Every structure is written in structure tokens, then in C-alpha cells.
């Protein structure tokens, strides 16, 4: 099942090129507001699985918004790939490294992002979307709390991220306007041949910068759901940015950071591609 935010309306993928507007197709049972559907995820997916109507809207990339426009909470996971921990010069974490991106930083899968001053870097990531309230969930049950997966960029301004002693600005450095692009679509876990092994990466100006697989994550999505939900309830529509593989600009010699005019293309197998360019703030 593929769920789109098309012109700010919830749409259900029918073919690779076309979708059904859900408010219309369900005769108003489900509203156009895509964020609202996560609170009724089981009811919605039961309806969608039985729906056999035709598509009525074209999937136009330029009209896609974030599949989760207003997540209640966003969790970010640091150093979750062995090769990325190594390039950062840090030991493998014994427990997940957790930060937040403030929800107002969410944006859609294409378009311009204003580049703030400083050292702006890319981090291609798989993003898990929560579909049921999760409290003290064991890893064995965790996938049933995940509505689906999408691609994300954990954009990061490194100078603010590492400023201060001790450095406590991860959250702000990762939350500038537009620093949490997600999309282009939410894909339910059953659609993947192996939901624990998804290829992902990104290119800057056509050059491949990151190219990894989620099977290399230190803490899997079920382990992250278990770890986080032991502390705080995970809510329908929450996002977990699950960490980035190696190849970030900050770890390169010389550093290769995002500049005004750069194009950033982010891809995840079975999900699709996001395309952003950077403009003056
Ligand atoms: Zn990250």
C-alpha cells in the first residue's frame, strides 16, 4: 500500500502513475487531511485493502507533500551504521543515540530549501512512521506498530550541532526550516521483499555521496521502537529518522558541504526519490 500527500490531500496509490483521492473514494469516511489518518490506521488500512475503485488523480511529483506533515514527535538516531560511526571517529554506541528534530522542520519531497549560514550537511535516512500508540513494546511486536516507511534527509548544520561544551545543540542544528524533508510516499512494510534490508543513499549534483543498506544498522527498527517506547509513548504519526550510512560531507577530506545552487537527490529502494535544491536564506 502506497500513501501519498497529493496537493495536501490523502491519496491511495493505485498504479505507479495514479492514485485515488481517499476522501472522495471513501465518500467522506476518511478526511483529506493525511495527518489524521495515522490515528485511525488499522481502520484505514482495512478499508484501503478492500477498496477496488479506479484512480482519479495523477501522481505528479511536483504536487507531492510530506506523507506526514505534522508529526507529534520526531526521533533521530545518531551513529546507527558501523561505517558512519567509524568515519565520525567515534566508538559504536552501546545504546541508541537519540535526539529530536522539531516537527516544524518537516517539508515535502521536492523543491527549494533555504540554506542557513554555517556548515550544512546531508544524511540520507530511512524514516519509520508510527501507526499505533506504542508503550513498552517488545521488539518482537514492534513492526505491527509501524504504519510504513518513507525516505528522509536528516539535514544538519554541523557548527550549531557541535557548538558548546558539552555539545548540546543536536536538536537545533537539525531543525532549521526545511531540514526534515520526507517522502515521496509512505509505503507499508508488507510491500518490501525484506523490510529490514533497504538500499538507500543520496547524490549531490549527480555525484553519489551515500550508498548503504538498512541491514547495516546497529539498532534495527524493532529495537528502536522497543528502546524508545520503554521511555515515552510513541504516537500515531510520529517519525523515527533511523540514522545515516557513511559518506556524509562533514567526514570527507576536504569537507563537502551543501552550497547554494546544489541539487540533493535522495533515494530509497521501493520508496522512491526526493529532489531538493538549496537557495539563499
Ligand atoms: Zn541522522
Q: Can you give keywords for this protein?
A:
globular; single chain; twelve-stranded mixed β-sheet; five-stranded mixed β-sheet; 281 residues; binds zinc ion; 33% strand; 19 strands; alpha+beta; 7 helices; Fumarylacetoacetate hydrolase, domain 2; 2 domains
Describe the structure.
The chain is an alpha+beta fold. It folds into two domains: 2-63, no CATH class; 74-280, Fumarylacetoacetate hydrolase, domain 2. Helices cover 15% and strands 33% of the residues. A hairpin with a 2-residue loop joins strand 1 (2-6) and strand 2 (9-13). The longest helix has 10 residues, at 41-50. It is globular and about 55 Å long. The protein starts with a strand and ends with a strand. It binds zinc ion (ZN). Zinc ion (ZN) binds at residues 76, 123, 125, 154, 241, 243-244.
Amino acid at each position: 500500500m502506497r500513501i501519498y500527500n497529493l496537493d495536501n490531500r490523502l491519496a491511495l496509490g493505485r498504479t505507479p502513475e495514479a492514485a485515488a483521492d481517499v476522501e472522495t473514494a471513501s465518500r467522506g469516511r476518511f478526511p483529506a487531511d493525511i495527518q489524521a489518518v495515522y490515528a485511525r490506521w488499522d481502520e484505514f488500512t482495512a478499508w484501503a485493502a478492500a477498496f477496488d475503485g479506479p484512480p482519479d488523480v495523477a501522481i505528479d511529483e511536483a504536487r507531492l507533500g510530506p506523507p506526514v506533515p505534522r508529526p507529534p514527535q520526531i526521533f533521530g538516531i545518531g551513529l546507527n551504521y558501523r561505517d558512519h560511526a567509524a568515519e565520525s571517529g567515534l566508538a559504536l554506541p552501546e545504546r541508541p543515540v537519540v535526539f529530536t528534530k522539531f516537527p516544524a522542520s518537516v517539508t515535502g519531497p521536492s523543491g527549494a530549501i533555504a540554506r542557513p549560514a554555517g556548515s550544512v550537511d546531508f544524511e540520507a535516512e530511512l524514516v519509520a512512521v508510527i501507526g499505533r500508540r506504542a508503550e513498552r513494546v517488545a521488539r518482537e511486536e514492534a513492526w505491527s506498530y509501524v504504519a510504513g516507511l518513507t525516505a528522509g534527509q536528516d539535514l544538519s548544520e554541523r557548527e550549531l550541532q557541535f557548538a558548546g561544551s558539552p555539545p548540546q545543540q543536536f536538536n537545533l542544528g537539525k531543525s532549521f526550516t526545511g531540514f526534515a524533508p520526507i517522502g515521496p510516499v509512505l509505503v507499508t512494510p508488507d510491500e518490501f521483499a525484506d523490510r529490514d534490508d533497504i538500499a538507500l543513499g543520496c547524490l549531490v549534483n549527480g555525484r553519489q555521496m551515500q550508498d548503504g543498506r538498512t541491514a547495516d544498522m546497529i539498532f534495527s527498527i524493532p529495537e528502536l521502537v522497543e528502546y524508545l517506547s520503554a521511555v515515552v509513548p510513541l504516537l500515531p504519526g510520529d517519525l523515527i529518522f533511523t540514522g545515516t550510512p557513511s559518506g556524509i560531507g562533514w567526514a570527507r577530506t576536504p569537507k563537502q558541504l551543501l552550497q547554494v545552487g546544489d541539487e540533493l537527490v535522495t533515494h530509497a529502494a521501493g520508496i522512491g526519490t526526493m529532489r531538493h535544491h538549496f537557495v539563499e536564506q
